[in-house]
Every structure is written in C-alpha cells, then in structure tokens.
Design goal:
mainly alpha; elongated; Methane Monooxygenase Hydroxylase, Chain G, domain 1
Length: 95
C-alpha cells in the first residue's frame, strides 16, 4: 500500500490550493450587496451571485479557515432569503 503526505503544514497547503482571502472578500461584498438591496430584482440578483459564490466555497474544517470566515454568514443569509421567498408565495419550509 502506498500513502503520501504533503510537505509543510496543512495551513500552507490550504493557502496554496485556495485563495481564501479573495473568497472571503467577495463573500463580504455579496453580504453587503444583499443587505443593501431592497428592490426584489436587486435582491434576486444579489442572492443569485451569492449562490454562485457558495459553489466555490472549499468547505474546509474550521481549524483550517481564517478567523471570521464569512462562509456560514453567506449561507445563513441565503437561507433567510429562501424563507422570505417561500413566505411571500405562501409556502412553508416544513412541507
């Protein structure tokens, strides 16, 4: 059997594989855009961009993420938007 382990620390490997600072900055920008969007079309556009961005989240263990990682905040904001949409059309999340 063959096993391999990368040289260096896990944090160094993560830093080489993913642009975490850029991802976090974009996520914070999307959160601000969504929070400031009041027209339905603007909110839809903001959250559509948020979903596209979430698809690129590396979903790393918390120990490998930078402090104040905005991934969960962005997922929570989108979940709130989904609930808002469901309520506006009379749907409930428990059906």
């Amino acid at each position: 059997s063959y096993t391999a382990h990368p040289d260096g620390s896990p944090h160094d490997l993560v830093a080489r594989l993913w642009p975490l600072a850029a991802w976090a900055t974009a996520a914070r920008t999307l959160l601000a855009r969504a929070a400031g969007a009041h027209h339905p079309a603007d909110r839809l556009a903001a959250f559509a961009a948020a979903v596209r961005h979430l698809l690129t989240d590396p979903v790393l263990p918390p120990a490998l993420l930078p402090p104040d990682w905005p991934g969960e905040a962005l997922r929570s904001a989108y979940a709130g938007y989904e609930e808002e949409l469901a309520a506006s059309v009379g749907l409930r999340g428990d059906h």
